[in-house]
Amino acid sequence: MEYKTLESTFINPPHKIEGKTGKAMESFYELAKGRVRHFNHQQFMDWLSESLGEEKSKAFEKIPAIVFVKNEVREEDQRIEKYLTNLEIAIDTSKFNLNGKDYTDILSFVVEHEIYESWLRSKKGFLEEKEFSEESRTRAHSLALRRQFLLAEKAGKGEKMFEWFMLVAPKKEKEYMSAWENAKNKLHK
């Protein structure tokens, strides 16, 4: 998919993904948490339209969050180095107040999903969207979804998370139920 790289997504200087996994992940998370933007629905659609164009952005109108992440791999001193060059997580806050019920208490788990999925992608060092295979994308999404439900379930919000998903994407009930069941099984072994 063609898109315009938004100025707000650039990280200057690029963030080097380095060190042991735990330290690198901690550093990534610290950066990513500062790259989350909360929009009302119109602002969210404007943000998407600026990047994708008005026509293509309509396909994403119903989603609650989207991430723009771009990585770069460089060869330095005979080693491959990975850098995060662009990152922005856009949240449509209108999707967290549905049918008269407030779901803002689960928003942090949605943000966690987006950060974790971005981390999985970044640690692999993919250069462009087209190089991130469909299989890799599905795997990263599934792992992030499981983590999202695990954290929500730990906080006593697993059922509310599932309820919210049934309002935003009911066609994926099986996928969400599986992630929720996985979380419950991990916690109650």
Question: Secondary structure elements and their pairing?
Answer:
Elements: E1 10-17, H1 21-33, E2 36-39, H2 41-52, H3 54-57, E3 65-76, E4 79-92, E5 97-98, E6 101-102, H4 107-124, H5 134-154, H6 158-168, H7 173-187
Parallel strand pairs: 2-4
Antiparallel strand pairs: 1-4, 3-4, 5-6
List keywords for this structure.
189 residues; alpha+beta; 4-stranded mixed β-sheet; two-stranded antiparallel sheet; 7 helices; 50% helix
Please give a structural write-up.
The chain is α+β, with helices and mostly antiparallel strands and 189 residues long. The chain has helices at residues 21-33, 41-52, 54-57, 107-124, 134-154, 158-168, 173-187, and strands at 10-17, 36-39, 65-76, 79-92, 97-98, 101-102. Strands 1, 2, 3 and 4 form a 4-stranded mixed sheet that branches. The mean pLDDT is 90.
Quick structural overview:
This protein is of the alpha+beta class and 189 residues long. It contains seven helices and six strands.
Number of helices: 7
Tell me, what's the shape?
globular
Q: Uncertain segments of ≥5 residues (pLDDT<50)?
A: none
How does the helix and strand content classify structurally?
alpha+beta
Largest sheet: 4 strands, mixed
Intertermini distance: 43 Å
Order of helices and strands: EHEHHEEEEHHHH
Strand content: 15-25%
Rg calculated over all Cα atoms: 17 Å
How much helical structure, as a percent, in the residues? 40-55%
Rounded average pLDDT:
90
Number of strands: 6
